[in-house]
């Protein structure tokens, strides 16, 4: 998979994209991620990329010309992207099925706006998917873009050494995850459940399933109707 991320704040995303699972997936060629600084396409001496909104109101809006020029240049760098995704609180809410679907794309172009909005004509002309990471407003699309990239990359084949690990994530089958324990067997008076130390894999699997259903029923009963 190839991901191109357009942002006016590349320094905000570069370090998180260089470490841990995403960093390793890039190094091993599971994913190619390119960050593009929108300001390089800015206009005039000061490389302007934003302006106040027509009709008044607070905040600044990313102007269409730099973003369109940037998108044209970025799109031309490879095969046609399956989607041009704008991160916005107006978008469809990111969940595991949406991440699974997008992870099948060979190429995605992501736009992170760091201002009040981007000009609607960019949304009309270029954007094919609008994605929100939840019903709250952040200062920009950079953190949402990182959230989306993380959700996508961790499920790409080869990104996680233990393939089971991504498949058994919470939400992958519609249930929350079971509690996890590691050494020591006893900690501040709390013991690891005996079954996890029994070596009986069928019993462990049953226990985990029971825990997942019970936790989901208690915390997110809304998920149970859609669970496998
Ligand atoms: N930009 C600002 N807030 C956002 C959100 N909740 N999801 C996606 N993009 C955003």
TrEMBL record:
Sequence positions that bind S-adenosyl-L-methionine: 113, 133-138
One Gene Ontology term, aspect cellular component: cytosol
Domain called tRNA methyltransferase TRMD/TRM10-type: residue spans: 1-224
Subcellular location: Cytoplasm
Main localization of the protein described in the UniProt heading: cytoplasm
The keyword Transferase appears for this protein: yes
CDD domains reported in the protein's UniProt record: TrmD-like (cd18080)
GO biological-process terms attached to the record: tRNA N1-guanine methylation
Classification via Gene3D superfamilies: 3.40.1280.10, tRNA(m1g37)methyltransferase, domain 2
Reaction(s) the record says it catalyses: guanosine(37) in tRNA + S-adenosyl-L-methionine = N(1)-methylguanosine(37) in tRNA + S-adenosyl-L-homocysteine + H(+)
UniProt keyword terms in alphabetical order: Cytoplasm, Methyltransferase, S-adenosyl-L-methionine, Transferase, tRNA processing
Gene Ontology terms for molecular function: tRNA (guanine(37)-N1)-methyltransferase activity
Keyword Manganese on entry: no
Pfam families: tRNA_m1G_MT
Record field: transmembrane: none
Entry-linked InterPro entries: Alpha/beta_knot_MTases, tRNA_m1G_MeTrfase_C_sf, tRNA_m1G_MeTrfase_TrmD, tRNA_m1G_MTases_N, tRNA_MeTrfase_TRMD/TRM10
The EC number(s) this enzyme carries: 2.1.1.228
Subunit structure: Homodimer.
Family, per entry: Belongs to the RNA methyltransferase TrmD family.
Function: Specifically methylates guanosine-37 in various tRNAs.
Name of this chain's protein: tRNA (guanine-N(1)-)-methyltransferase
Organism: Rubricoccus marinus
Gene name linked to the record: trmD
């Amino acid at each position: 998979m190839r991901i191109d991320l357009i942002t006016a704040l590349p320094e905000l995303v570069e370090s998180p994209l260089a470490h841990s699972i995403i960093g390793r997936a890039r190094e091993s060629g599971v994913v190619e991620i390119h960050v593009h600084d929108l300001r390089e396409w800015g206009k005039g001496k000061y490389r302007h990329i934003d302006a106040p909104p027509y009709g008044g109101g607070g905040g600044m809006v990313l102007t269409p010309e730099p973003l369109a020029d940037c998108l044209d240049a970025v799109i031309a760098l490879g095969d046609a992207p399956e989607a041009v995704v704008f991160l916005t609180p107006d978008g469809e809410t990111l969940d595991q099925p949406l991440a699974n679907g997008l992870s099948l794309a060979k190429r995605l172009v992501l736009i992170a706006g760091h201002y009040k909005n981007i000009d609607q004509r960019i949304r009309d002309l270029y954007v094919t998917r609008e994605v929100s990471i939840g019903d709250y407003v952040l200062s920009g699309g950079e953190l949402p873009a990182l959230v989306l990239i993380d959700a996508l990359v961790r499920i790409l084949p080869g990104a996680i050494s233990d393939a089971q690990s991504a498949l058994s994530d919470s939400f992958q089958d519609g249930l929350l995850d079971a509690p996890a324990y590691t050494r020591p067997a006893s900690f501040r008076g709390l013991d690891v459940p005996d079954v996890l130390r029994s070596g009986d894999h069928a019993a462990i699997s049953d226990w985990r399933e029971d825990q997942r259903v019970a936790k989901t029923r208690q915390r997110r009963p809304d998920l149970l109707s859609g669970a496998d």
